[in-house]
Structures
1.
Amino acid sequence: MLGLVFGALRARWVQALVMVVLAALTVVAAMVAGRAAGTAGRDAARARIDQATVAERTLRVRGLVAAGDRPEDALRRIDSLVDAPVERKAGGMRLPGSLLDESGGRRQTAELRYADGLCDNLTLRDGRCPAADGEVVLPDDLARLLGAGVGDRLQHESGLVATAVPLRVVGVYAPADAGGWFWSGQDGVAAYTTAATIDSAKATVTVTMAALLRPEAFDDAGGLRTGLDRLRGARFEATSGAPALADAVAADRRAVSRGIGLAEVEILLFGGLAIAVAAAYAAQERRGDAARMAIRGLPTWRIRAATAGQSILPLALGSVWAPRLFAAGVVIVAAADWSATRGGVGELMRDVRPRRPLVAATAEVCALGLGAAALFQIVAAPAADVRRDAGFGLAQVAPLLVAAALGVLGTRVLLAAAGLYGRHALAAGRLTAALAGLTLGRRRTAYRIIPVLAAATCVLGLAAQDYAGGADARARRAGVELGADRVLPVAPVNRERLLAAVRAADPGGHEAMAVVVTGPSGGPPVIAVDSARLRSVAGVDGAALHPAAPAPLAFSGTDLQLAASGDGARVRLLLGVDGTGEQVVAEFGPLSAQPARYRATVPACVRGCRVEALETAAAVTGQDHGPVELRELAAGGTVVVAGDVFADPVRWRTTIGQQASGVQVAQGGGGLRLTDVRPRTDRPVDSRLYAVDTPVPLPALAAGEAAENNTNDQPSASVFGVSVPLDLRPAALVPRGGGNGVLVDLEYSARIAAAAVGVIPAAEHPEVWLAPGASGAVVDRLRAAGLDVGGGDSVAAAKERAGRLAPAVTLLGDLAAAGVVLLLAAVAAFVVAAVDRRDRDAELAALRRQGVAHGTVRRVERRAALAPVLVAVLVGVAASVLLRLLAPPPVRPFSDRWPVPEPSVQPLALLVAGAVALALFGAVAVLHPGRRR
């Protein structure tokens, strides 16, 4: 018996080899998918951790230490309670209160802090780091507000029961990396000193600990929550986004494993289908063998074993590592051989099998019924994400079932149309067309391969569309979240200097744009942009952000004359230097009761300044005086502010922030009268009068929570630390802010914040955004303009990072699985073509004997072979279009709720998938081996 089987295998080695290839390809692809699921899940999880925010990766702990206790003991206790793997950590102390200058005339709310590793994370503008008790370093903004520099004396007061701490300024600094891990937790206004200096206050101190967790810490979300509970149980305040990140990491792993696991199931199902087709058509070749063995009197079981063994032995060789697939294959082969060889000797010896319409109709009705059921489930629940379902049902194999059902219909249409076309062509005398049509119409059994090819094309078309749509969505999101094609970080620099430098480096305004990202800690970001360049650089219309406003009160010159009167008062003008944003003060007085002209010298204004605000000396010294009347301001004989401008209420405003106004304004009669008042309020008092050269409320594009105003109050946002009323224009997305952010004009917002009193400096991140195609020369010009530009980020890099996350990995796995399915279908088509070759060659040889030209015979053969392939590919493409029109992709491009406006049908991806399927199947149909002339 084995000798008979091996002899038959040698005679039909092509069919045997194809069965081995089908089984081996299915097994290897399924095994690779199974192993890739674990590896891809781990890689996606690590990518998620690498791209997480600082808040998500950091554990922050704080606690109160009463006066007289040792803060170091509390820090050691916190350290002992943190048992998660830590990459970096930094302890610190905080003492709330206010800083006063030596005269006591200037006061600014600011914490006194100590932080581990401070000197490694700052850039000194002047001086050095604190080393001895009583030494302190100040940030740029705080030093400016206090008017303090290196060597000046300050005092920190922290309440009635605390000891005032004398301080000496030894340095002025800026953060070395304002967006880095160290400074992310250093919110608020603070001066930094030594731990012993804070202890000397004899006051209640807040101790802090920040720990940057290692990637392996996020393998255990439960352990992270237990650690937080342990810290809270010890009466410490502990906050971290780490447990939520750990949950997201676990979800990513499950999603990748389940998504690629379902792709593995898809490969196994289609591999089984391809084996079934190959076995069925190979069994047709063995009908003669069964007849000859029956004539020799062999029992039925031996006949079945001899015929089925010709497929079972190659199947065993190809599926040696997959016993379950082999067992299923044995059942499939046995059923196919039983169906093909169950007739009598006379029936088995016939070349044409008797038609069994009931069997064929039953199979086709079942295929159509399953396709309809799958289509109904898709329509009934279009938004279901099958990748989140641990079960397995019709939704997972819907593409196969729908495409196979449409393939059955397509086969029926092809056969009927081919026969009709052949008869009409024969009557018209078109021999080639007639023979091709009639050949197609007669060979009914061979065209059952159409549903298989259609299903494979559909799977590939869906996977290609989903992957292309995901790539497009990731590219768009990267552009929105980044803001522009390339973003270059800039070392801390004045806003006006940043604007001037970028405009000088790109005078045309088409390649580069100055941007400053700020906003309250934990709130929506505020993105201040040079709105005139926004369309060229970021593709967003920024015209609404920069409406017309009163011209700045600008001048050039060093000698100022002020026509004013006041009983012993002094007047201070706050001036902004053009191009640098440096703030200088011109002071006039003391004023007499009678109108007179007073002079002040401002050397910094030789190239231009503008008036930002004015105030009386009482706002600084606290001395009482009568009203002040202002009539005219001139520079070098040129009038800067005429009397009618002083008298114009449109050109001046009081505070717009949270402070109470400490000045009473009366205008008219060709001048301006200021009277200091002391409002009864607990709020800070702002006694400055500001020049109006910006629109107020400030126009803004806002998205998400920033665009919502659920009260009747004027919407506002913290812009550079100033609470500014906004004129909101809602938007779905804003550059850099995405679905939650505020976009304002940089020039206007910088002017509003420039001279504001009591501003708590917010974290600022100056940047330069570059347009697509911006030349490298513009970066060199930016550096030549004085900007310290870093390497930055780009949309291409952001896309690459997003491509390593779970959704992209799952979509790529689906595309790879679709490629395997296409290969399996091609091998099955090869079997059909090889089995059908004998009868086809005999028919064509008969036509040659009857005088039909060789070229005509070849054309008939080629058309008859390619027509089913063309129909199958068209049906598969149509099925993929239908499925995507009815339901969105089962795997979203993002794990969060980021909107995906991509169209469900991707024409280019669909065209490429159809072309690949047509080329592969067409080559198999036309270029099969053994062709005879």
Note: DSSP finds 27 helices and 35 strands in the chain.
2.
Amino acid sequence: MQRLLCLLLIVYCPSLAFSQQINKETFTANLENLGTGFPQEKVYIQFDKPVYAPGETIWFKAYIMSATTPSLVSANIYIDHTDANGNVLSHAVLPMIASSAKGSYVIPKTYSGNSIHVRAYTKWMLNFDSSFLYNKDIRILQQKQTAAKAPAVNKPAIDFFSESGDCIAGINCRIAFKSVYDNGKPCNAKGTIVNSKGETVATFTSVHDGMGIFPLDAKANEKYIAKWKDEQGKPYETPLPAVKPGGISLEVRLTEGKRSFIIKRSTTAAENLEQVQIVATMDQHLVYMANVNLKETPAVGGAIPVDQLPSGILQLTVFDANWVAVAERITFINNNDYVFEPEVGFAALGTSKRGKNTLVINVPDTLEANLSVAVTDAGIGIDSSDNIISRLLLTGDLKGNVYKPGYYFANSSDSLQQQLDLVMLTNGWRRIKWNDLVAGKMPVIKYSNDTSYLSLAGKVFGTSAMDMRQSGFLFLILDRKSDSTRNSMQVSLEKDGSFKDPNVILFDTTRIYYQFAGAKDMANSTEVVFNNGTLPSPGKINFDKNMNRYFLDSAAENRNLYFASEQARLAKFLEGTTLEGVTVKAKTKSREQILDEQYASGLFSGGNARSFDLENDPFARSSLDIFNYLRGKVAGLNITGQTGPGSQPSVQWRGGTPSFYINEMPVDISQIGSTNPSDVAYIKVFPPPFFGAFGGGANGAIAIYTKKGGAAPVTKGKGMPSKLVMGYAPEKEFYSPNYGTFDQRNEQEDLRSTLYWNPMILTNARNKMVKLTFYNNDITNSFRVIVEGVTKDGRITHIEKVIE
């Protein structure tokens, strides 16, 4: 069921009467404008494993959400990899497929750092607070260990937080605290609060991961100091925040199906605090508003119904009579509405050396799901710092670090919810700038959201509209780095010199040669700029060096070191492989694999497609046309009507017409029908959906590749100017050996720590069960299986199983 924010609740009751209406309608309208016009995106990335070594590939899958559902705001996502100092190692843009993206990064063999930092974001996210971009440190194991050093002394620090922002004199306030060591681990602290006379006025003790809470009856003009000890009994002193002489406090309590609140006003508070508003929001949308009269009584209580709200962070803010925010509190709502649980098991299990395994995932009938799966050696450990649930529901909306946030979603017990409330009390959350909103000032948009894939686009500068009309169009030759063939095309020029073709998606690095059709000399007097909207590499990134600390136990540390050393040994051995050996390996590839490497690129390479080698198929030479050749060869592809030169049969897949391509350039069905099969080397038929097609390819695609040795190749043309254009990061396929077939590579030692990685598993009611086959390595005897993903309506899953 779609999880939606509940309708606006305006509460009126005698105890919450408000005598005036000061810009309430304007405030509500501004908030609605913010929520609908400026949606916020959150990113989570699943990696295939927690730790890597130089030379290995980091495989990842990014999920992008907006509010409670997969994001439809952006079509592209950026992934930056940096060293520990923020120097950019890789800047890549990836296409979002079903609100997600998959990719990889090869760690340089010469990399000497102990970590790689990953930052992920959409262009739209750069318009807002950078604290909410995805940031994570990845541990890198180095073989050459430096001489052992004396362990560094980890120093603890403690911070104190008044529940709603300020400690007010004359009000018994609740003070939360969090104590952590400088390595990121929690510190269990205990101590006393003393006043300026040295008198003890309160005591405190950590109750969970260095956090706790205590009451304080603060006095005006008084300064308080915390005298406390860490776990080793070492003493410290830390001053508490200053006490305000007057004001408002907001207390929130967790009760079944609601959030109870108490608003207190000090006797010394100004008149603007006699009548206030309490506002509750989720994802920048209003869910509750009440008028509160504190003129006759110093405290007023109320309750907000939350049982119909989606799970996530609820923000409560108190405004004075002039709509100035004076108190704020966040609380987490857990209605257990966010989870879906596919069945995950093994139809065949082989934990022995190179044993065959069949992993089965069965998703409930009514759900359309987007999943990713990682199977690793169980001994290498797991990154417990975050998972898809805790990131998209919790840490993606918080500033500050949360220690092992996945823990807070282990169950829904009252004790765990109270512990999670300590996280709410000790972490900052300021997505909405209330002063700007009250004034009607919306966020400044510097970067428009990507609404389409990176396609061919640009503009001609330095010429007139008349010259544009005379030229008519621009002749282009696309020479892609990942493809030895060249494609030619032409694009029409608009009056202002702009041109575009949204059907031409750019991958990797493409050298584009160009010439003006009607006026070839124009190339010498104009400037042609190709701009597909990509952001340039930032060069260097600043990030919190103390964030995302990841801790391995000693057994997992040793297991990872073992894999790293064994893989380094194997890599060194294979460096001596002769050229003849490499040639033998190539001969073991199938004809279709060779053709795919020779012809296909980008989203057209690999994939779940039926491939046909027409050069070695006698039936191709006797076929009337391509459709006559394909008829009856692909299950689900219906080709009806007359075929042959000049005819246009009906081609249907799932009730729609697939996309057609020749040499990866989009064409219409008539061009496919007029293509002579004897000129075709290779055909790929992609079942729905095919994400290389413009608009998502809901009806699949048919890709035709003409023989490279047939027609005269497209040449660059002497003297043609050219520009280098960056596109999507090149695709790389995860290698999973098949020990059921003969392959020269099967003679090598198998020391993979990641046994299987599949980042893109899409299910629906027709295809709800997925069977995935993989083989064990030479040394693993137990697997860790992690399945993560989201459904179309925003439900999330995180399943972890250890198979022995």
Note: The first strand starts at residue 10 and ends at 11.
